[in-house]
Structure formats: structure tokens, C-alpha cells
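Section 3.1: Structural characterization of target chains.
Under the original work plan, the team committed to producing a structural model for every single-chain target entering the pipeline before any wet-lab resources were allocated. The record below documents one such target. The sequence was received from the expression subgroup and is listed exactly as submitted; it comprises 263 residues.
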Amino acid sequence: MTEKSKDAVQSGKEYVQIRNLNVFYNHDKQALHDVTLSVDRNKVLALIGPSGCGKSTLIKAVNRILDLIPETRIEGDIRVGGETVLGPQIDMTELRQRVGMVFQRPNPFPQTIYDNVAYGLRIHGVRDRGTLDEIVEWALRNSALWEEVKDRLKASAMDLSGGQQQRLCIARALAVQPDVLLMDEPCSALDPIATGKIEELIQALKKDYTILIVTHNMQQAARVSNYTALMWLGKLIEHGKTKDFFTNPKEKITEDYITGRSG
């Protein structure tokens, strides 16, 4: 890492650094083309663009979930807090503790609400009941769910509403205390009321986490993010402060997309 990059990481800037990232599926089908961008600590980056443009592929590269897809190849560099996440020496369990993920559809385990949140803690060796209780309550409070479920922690997570299940999945990610939170269209399966709660939660969480969110909803991107990036056919077209991005786009593709003339 250059001295400038070290200074940026130490001062809280560029906490997630993606450099010259190329992703290939089935050996030769290129999904991402030379993507370079960064996200400052405690900021929210919204990734927008049409379906199939590489948004989800990009965030899934950050915590190496792409490794689960056979015949996938990644070139370039991704750093979190100045440390590369690529390479065979990386401990995947540790990486996915540092970089949490919330998926498009809520995916609670068919277990109790309590056990869903405690799941990752137990994987990391936490067994003390008092510690588990404390962290489960903390995570549920930080996902704005505690008051709704505190009297039924032993109930099945499958009995929760869709919006509650999504906040439970966020609590499950928070429980292992990540540095970065990846969200892949976390509101696409939710009604407007539940969506509003998730958006409020994102605003509250960014004081402690660096967040990358994929969304098809440009209004949502404008509401929740500090920075917005447009992906198009696997390429990064434009990336900047959200207010400037939507009011004064630099690229014609961006202008056409946000005004509805394309995409």
C-alpha cells in the first residue's frame, strides 16, 4: 500500500478500496470490467443500475461469497481497512465476520429468534450464556427490533413478518460486530412501511458501520446514501456524492438512467 493509501485508511477514509476489479464466470464470461472505487469509513455507498449490470457481483466480491460459485475468477485487489481480502491465505470465517451480508430476501434460519442472532457468535466460540444474552439484546436493539420481540425470543423466527425477518437478519449480521455491512436489495421484498424502517435503520447504523447497498430504487439511493455509483454492463460509469450525482451527473449514461430515458 502506498503512503497516501495508508494515511487515508488511518484517517478513516477509503475504508473499502476496490482496485481494477475484474470478475469472470465460467472461465471467460466477464461480469465486471476494471472497476475501481472506494468507500469512506462510516459512509453509505448505493450501487444502482439495470438488472444484470454487476451490482450484486461487486458487493459479493467484497466478502468472497463469489468463491461459492464454481469456475469464478477474480482479478484485481479489494482491501478492507487496508488489508487485502483476496488470496488463498484469507480466513473466510474471519472475513465474513468483518464483512457482514444481508440478502435480497429475508433468510432467517428455522430456529428461534434468539438462536438466529446467536448463531454467528456460537460459530466463533462464544458459549457463555450471559455474554450471548448481552450481545443478542444489543444486536436486536441496534436493528430496531428488540421492543417488538423481547418477550418472545424463544418463538420461531419464521413467525415474524417479512420486515421483521429482514431486521432479524441485520441483527444476525451485527451480532458478530462487523466493520462493513453489505446489503443486496434489502427492501425489494418488503412493503413501504417495512422499507421505511429499514431505511431509518441504515441511517442509524452508518455511525458505526461502512455500508454498501445495492438498490433498484433511485429514490431510496438518494435518501439513504452519502455516495452513489452507477453500474452499466459490468462497468463503473460514475461515482460521486449522492447530491451531486443526482443533480449534476457528469456522464450522459447517468443522466439518461436517472431521468428514465434508458435502463
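The CA atoms of residues 66 and 89 lie 16 Å apart.
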